[in-house]
Amino acid sequence: MHSKKGKANNSNKLWYIIPALLLLALAVFLFINYSESFTFEKVKNGFNQEFLIFLAIGVFAQLVDGTLGMGYGATSTTFLLSFGVHPATSSMAVHVAEMFTTGASAISHYKFKNINKKLVLNLIVPGIAGAIIGAYLLADVIDGEAIKPFIAIYMIILAATIIIKGLKKNIKKKKSKNLGMLAGFGGFMDSIGGGGWGPIVTSTLMGRGRDPRYTIGSVNTAEFAISFASGITFVLFEGISGWRVIAGLVIGGIIAAPVGAYFLNKIPRKPATILVGLLLIILSVRTLIRLL
Fold this sequence. Notes:
TM_pro_TauE-like, about 290 residues, about 85% helix
């Protein structure tokens, strides 16, 4: 009896320890390899009005992602570009920042009991594989902008289905088949398109009638592993620049992560499902308009 309880407690601790250790290792790696960017004078001069803007963007983007299960990349990238951040710097900053913010989000969702452990474990491995392949191809082979219209069209169709189901009183839950293929595709498209893990995986699972609370919490938790794999690949191939943008997004995201996880507990099923569908349509239409 005590042995089983001890094993369960050790297992529970791993959900905190693993993300914390990975984030610590990443922070040390970045500091060692980019220490010239962290001199006292540069850090002092970096905390200015622009940094506060990046911080606010990080808070807002993480609140959207934490409560609705998607939209961090799209939200933060849109705001960064509107404030004049170069597209290449914006993309790199978002991917690196997500390594930290999704870690904080995963710990927060676990703390507030928003996750289904079995679902998380089923999504992680294929999601990581897809993310690494996508990041590698984007660095050397594929133009990520070229495939965005196809993702946007898919999202609009999927979002319409989700809203219709959200308006129904009773949603019949369907068995979640091919989770590995879904996670692999979501991880691949997230790396290729600069976002898409949440919209693709969360939306598909909710479209099958899964509970929004556990779907969002589980997909966000699995996203930490996917973002970490994708971010490391981008760091190795492209390097890092624009640390103020990254720092603002990271600190803002970490502040907002537990807030988003807390509010997820308070959102009833129907409004959450409809909100996710509307967010998908807005983001997808915006993407199509920008590409016209």
